[in-house]
Task: structure prediction
Amino acid sequence: MLPERTDVLIVGAGPTGLTAALTLARRGVEVTLVDQREEPAVTSRAAVVHAYTLEMLDRLGAGAPLVARGLRSVRFTVRDRDRVLVTVPFDRLPTRHRYALMVSQSVTEEVLTERLAEAGVRVLRPCRLTGLHHDGDGVVARFDAATVRTPWVIGADGIHSTVRQLSGIPFTGPAGSEESFVLADVHVDSTLPRDGASIFLARGGPMIWAPLPDGRVRLVATVTDPPAEPDAAYLQGLLDERGPGRAPDRVREVLWSSRFRLHRRVAEAFRAGPVLLAGDAGHVHSPAGGQGMNLGICDAVDLGETLADVLAGASENRLDEYAARRRPLAHEVAGFADRLTRLATVPPAARPARDTLLRLVSVLPPLRRRVALRLSGLNQRPSVGRDRPGGPVRTAGR
Result:
């Protein structure tokens, strides 16, 4: 049952909303977390948790139980069929998590939900937000059969965020940026190593091959006009076209599959008075590089810590600083994902130059380290620094 009042209302109980709620609850803030779905999703788009995100989750007591349920990927490989163009190892990362953790988003949500329950907070379902009214005392949030008054609302309700729409925050991106993807968890016969994820660059677009626990493999590929539920024959065609050539993968079983479309978009503001955005409500982009959920979780820790400080007496200007930190990061990560996609789709005449450039990354340690830091998210940590103007980004709570 919804309360009449709460210190913070969070809309959306995916990884971002769960993390924001857990961060606030551990700081002693009264938080109400709602989601319009009756049950958590059992299938999911995200399948990797990077090192910096694990550091953030360690601070919430969620890192270790998540690592125990995942598969450690110690390298990231860029391939053109049978040719390895770049291998980016994670074994020299400046962190205790010298790997990318391959784990389904649904498992990540389970772990966060368990930690949140231990903090005395449960997800209220199904609760469909229908209105937001701002007044001098904060916000009145309307649901189908109730209203909740709160000083602060966090929109963590995804790409089609109701919070963002009701707050009138534009969600914009470059024209013609929509991409279609297929997504599937499969069992395959494969000679590819299971201790690392790969991205295959192909004329038709990139294809991600990522091992998961229990012998599964996650496939993600950009395509044109995909079927609603890609079957084994369709996925086998993608593997034959883009995957290994000398020893092709063979699909044995499709566990689940789907399609989705994404625009590259970033909200024009991450704060509108008492309304704050995090995760996909504020930014969406290509899944190349596996950055989306990770950026959202880090948004949530930063926002949760910042808002807890404000509720404890710090200036509300700290929330403007949150927005000023996270929005440029969203643009940067979206640009990185776009560059990976463009590498896959260069014309045939330009591929020799592309391949030479990628091989340089493999043989030059400083370039290889830079890519590893970017993929792992550790370039966001002040002690590591950032390779863009403006210097380090403040880490929440430090």
Residues 185-191+199-206+215-262 form one domain. The chain has ten helices and 22 strands. The chain has two domains: 8-72+101-173+265-346, 185-191+199-206+215-262. The longest strand covers residues 250-262.
